[in-house]
Write a structure and sequence with these properties.
The complex is a heterodimer of chains A (41) and B (558). Chain A is an all-alpha fold and 41 residues long. Chain A has 1 helix and no strands. Chain A has one helix spanning 12-39. Chain B is mainly α and 558 residues long. Classes of the chains: A mainly alpha (41), B mainly alpha (558). The A-B interface holds A 1, 4-9, 11, 13-14, 17-18, 20-22, 24-25, 28-29, 31-33, 35-36, 38-41 and B 42, 71, 74, 81, 84-85, 88-90, 93-94, 97-98, 109-110, 207-208, 210-212, 214, 216-219, 262-264, 266-267, 270-271, 273-275, 277-278, 281, 356, 502.
Chain lengths: 41, 558
């Protein structure tokens, strides 16, 4: 594995984007869940 | 379609061609042609990743699926954000940092030429055919709806795509993708707004009708291996599929290794994860609203006009009887729907519940007559009578206002062209880097490789158009090839996972790859009812297990 760069998991852009991504996913899933529970009987 | 619609489509095609070709500046070296000198901003790469994955079938087939089957298909994408995060901290830094042109090139550095050649060959076979199907699927729908010849439909999408990809390389593909993505989202939102305006009832009542018909069921927590769309198959099988697709498929890898840095490359993948589930939900919800729209506007018994004509001609009396029964069932369903809207508007809860129950029963009657119609079409035409891909085109052509029809057709063209362009560019890269440069001409000038690269792009474009043109007769072959693709996706992911494990060795990786594909084939033939989404899990796990066992037995150093 020599010469192959090791991953660098920490960086500001990545962490910031990651937080936003997860927020959007959670919001969408909540919206879909709300649609299903409110309108599907 | 009116003149304004054709003008919009013509403007779109000319703009894409001109914009793509002018990106040829700065692509005088092979690194500029295939990797844009690794200089593209993360947001553009992210949009390009999304555009490459979003094909015309997403726009016309997935909306149709929303209309006929509801939201449950969205579960297919539940694993995507997780896969993007995992790739961002594992494979992306390795691939971007290794300064490779192709994902498979990295495998030779880590293992050997055998593994590289086998994986890149499998990619060429399956992606070459799938590129043809990307163009063929909308072309078949266009030719049935507009009455165009299949050749003309294929040429309309294929020729501009091949020209700008061949001349402009990955720069053209990426920047045209960005604009195409904008057009697709704009058209979808415009159609959604138009639907809400044209519905004769309030959106809340429309959603109640959709819910009563089971169209808003987005979550299914049952653990059924035979069901393609459950929460668990989407989350577990979907994660492995997305890891395989975005982590090891050159058509995706090539997008993010054009980014300026490792950080920007993984942020571009996250950008794709941002919008994938919301976008798919928007596409499916548009289809759900189309379903409600057709509760109040009479839809045809068969949405595919070619099939309808064939059935009418072959069995006129049988079709007439079915059509009459269909009309009666539709009228009863509409009456029930209007009663629900009135009860809900009055706030009469008991009447609303009873009305929804009646609507559900009338919807089942409509579905039963439709099923008989589809069975008759299947018997008359001898082909699959699934007409889900024709629901949205029928709505667009008959009910959208002038101008918006052209905009939606342009968006379908954009989706097909952006997906095909990304695949053409990656096919040419693998052909030149993993085969021509590796085995035929290892030493040549940059100008020579650039010329061969453009020729390879042209060749794959021609190949895709030929496959698309003969798609109707090659139908079963394409199904076989796509099935074959699902055999090896997870296995290739397994090889890349092995590559990140220091004690894995070349022989273990190569034999593990073959064992993984064999395991998937065995599961597929022994238990064909197991959903293909689980094949990726089986393939990846087998490769890693076999690879590690064999590596432990290998004495020779790598």
């Amino acid at each position: 594995m020599s010469g192959i760069p090791q991953p660098d998991p920490g960086s500001r852009l990545f962490r910031r984007t990651l937080l936003r991504v997860m927020a959007v996913q959670v919001a969408t899933l909540l919206f879909l869940w709300l649609l299903q529970t409110r309108y599907t009987r | 379609m009116r003149a304004l619609d054709w003008v919009i489509i013509a403007i779109y095609l000319v703009y894409v061609l001109v914009d793509g070709v002018r990106r040829a500046k700065g692509t005088r070296e092979i690194e500029g042609y295939f990797l844009a000198h690794r200089s593209l901003p993360w947001w553009a790469v992210g949009l390009s990743v999304m555009a490459t994955q979003l094909s015309a079938i997403t726009l016309i087939g997935t909306t149709g699926q929303g209309a006929t089957d509801g939201l449950r298909f969205v579960q297919f994408y539940f694993g995507l954000p997780l896969a993007m995060v995992l790739l961002g901290v594992t494979l992306v830094p390795f691939l971007h940092g290794a300064r490779v042109f192709t994902a498979y090139e990295y495998l030779e550095r880590r293992f050997d030429a055998r593994t590289r050649s086998l994986t890149s060959f499998l990619f060429l076979v399956v992606r070459g055919m799938s590129c043809g199907t990307i163009i063929a699927a909308p072309a078949v729908v266009f030719s049935a709806i507009f009455g165009w010849s299949l050749l003309w439909s294929v040429a309309l999408m294929g020729i501009p795509t091949v020209i700008y990809t061949m001349i402009g390389g990955v720069q053209a593909v990426t920047w045209v993708d960005v604009k195409q993505m904008g057009l697709i989202v704009f058209a979808l939102i415009a159609v959604m707004v138009t639907l809400l305006v044209q519905l004769p009832i309030a959106p809340d009542h429309a959603l109640a009708l959709a819910g009563a018909a089971g169209r808003l069921r987005a979550f299914d927590f049952s653990f059924d291996l035979r069901n393609d769309f459950t929460f668990w198959s989407g989350l577990i099988g979907g994660t492995f599929l997305m890891l395989s697709y975005f982590g090891t498929d050159q058509s995706q890898v090539q997008r993010y290794i054009t980014a300026k840095s490792v950080d920007q490359a993984r942020s571009s993948l996250l950008m794709s994860a941002y919008w994938k589930i919301p976008l798919q939900a928007l596409v499916l919800l548009t289809g759900v609203l189309v379903f409600v729209f057709f509760v109040f506007q009479r839809p045809p018994l068969l949405f595919n006009p070619a099939q309808e004509q064939a059935v009418r001609a072959a069995e006129p009396s049988r079709y007439g009887v079915l059509d009459e029964r269909y009309r009666t069932a539709l009228q009863a369903r509409e009456t029930a729907a209007r009663a629900v809207a009135v009860a809900r508007a009055r706030g009469d809860r008991a009447a609303s519940v009873a009305g929804l129950e009646a609507f559900r029963a009338r919807e089942a009657d409509v579905g039963a007559v439709r099923a008989e119609g589809l069975a008759l079409a299947r018997r008359v035409t001898g082909t699959s009578a699934r007409d889900v891909n024709y629901v949205m085109p029928y709505f667009v052509l008959h009910f959208l206002p002038v101008g918006l029809t052209g905009l939606f057709v342009a968006a379908v063209l954009a989706a097909a062209m952006s997906a095909a362009a990304g695949e053409l560019s990656s096919l040419a890269t693998v052909t030149v880097i993993d085969f021509y440069q590796r085995w035929i001409r290892p030493e040549a000038s940059d100008a020579h490789y650039l010329l061969v690269s453009k020729a390879a792009t042209g060749f794959w474009g021609l190949f895709a158009c030929v496959v698309a043109t003969f798609a109707a007769t090659l139908g079963s072959l394409i199904v076989v090839v796509n099935r074959f693709g699902s055999f090896f996706y997870g296995s290739i992911l397994g090889v890349f996972l092995l590559a990140m494990i220091p004690r894995a060795r070349a022989t273990g990786a190569f034999v593990g790859l073959i064992a993984g594909m064999a395991a998937v084939a065995a599961v597929n033939f022994a238990t064909p009812s197991v959903s293909w989404l689980w094949h990726n899990v089986i393939g990846a796990v087998t490769v890693v297990a076999v690879g590690l066992v064999l590596s432990a037995r290998t004495i020779a150093p790598r």
